Amino acid sequence: MTLVDTDPATTALAIEHLCDFAITFQAMQTLSTPLGTRMIAVVRHGTVEGPRLRGEFLPGGGDWIVIGSDRVARLDVRATIRTHDGELVFVTVTGRAALSDAAIDRLLAGQTIGWDEMHARTAPLFETGAAGYAWLNSTVAIAINELSLHHVNYRVYSVQ
Fold first, then answer.
1. Is 18 a member of any domain?
2. Rounded to whole angstroms, how far apart are CA atoms 91 and 93?
3. Is 9 strand, coil or helix?
4. Residue 3: inside a domain, yes or no?
5. What is the pLDDT of residue 20?
6. Alpha-carbon distance 57 to 103, whole Å?
7. Is the per-residue pLDDT at 7 higher than 70?
8. Residue 89 in domain
9. Which terminus of the chain is more solvent-facing, meaning fewer CB atoms within 10 Å of its CB: N or C?
10. Across the strands, what pairs with 141?
């Protein structure tokens, strides 16, 4: 058996729009460390909008980012969503964002870096005990991102 399959019909992944995240942060904490520039963004508020998942991000979660000397941002996100019907969903996100020197300068100057101005891909994972959202526990998701020092937006897709 071979793991290499060149048939496009079996190697393409189908995706479906799951939801959009729009998150605002408290004041960003930025500090230099031996591992790179750390940026800590604590959630102030956020929304989740999608056909099957709607709600808000609760304050206190956050995004712990390390930008290495290679100009790659390594993301570590943990947050809680309260759905429109009162259920809680824990979200973790890992991912990478490759930023040019110009994009980093614009980011640090307070500008928004758009989806098409950087290569940012993330992988949200969901965890909940709510029966109505149990389907999220087995959902594999990917996202593209737009970011600034004050907010981040995700366009989240489930992999079918």
1. no
2. 7
3. helix
4. no
5. 98
6. 27
7. no
8. yes
9. N
10. 158
Q: What are 79's two structure tokens?
A: 């947050």
Tokens standing for residue 28:
């960003």
Check if the beta carbon of residue 45 is closer than 8 Å to that of residue 24.
yes
Beta-carbon neighbour count of residue 86 at 10 Å? 8
Give the residue-averaged pLDDT of 114-136: 95
Residue with tokens 């980011």: 107
Structural domain that includes position 107: 24-159
Cα angle 110, 48, 39 (rounded to 5 degrees) comes to: 35
Q: Looking at the 3D structure of the chain, how many domains does it have?
A: 1
pTM value > 0.85: yes
Structure tokens at 54: 């709607």
Q: Given CA atoms 32, 35, 37, 42 in this order, what sign does their dihedral have?
A: negative
Helix (H) or strand (E) holding 72: strand 72-83
Q: Please name which of 118, 126, 106 lies closest in space to residue 145, comparing C-alpha atoms.
A: 118
User: Would the CA dihedral through 110, 116, 122, 124 be positive or negative?
Assistant: positive
Q: Which residue has the tokens 């230099």?
A: 32
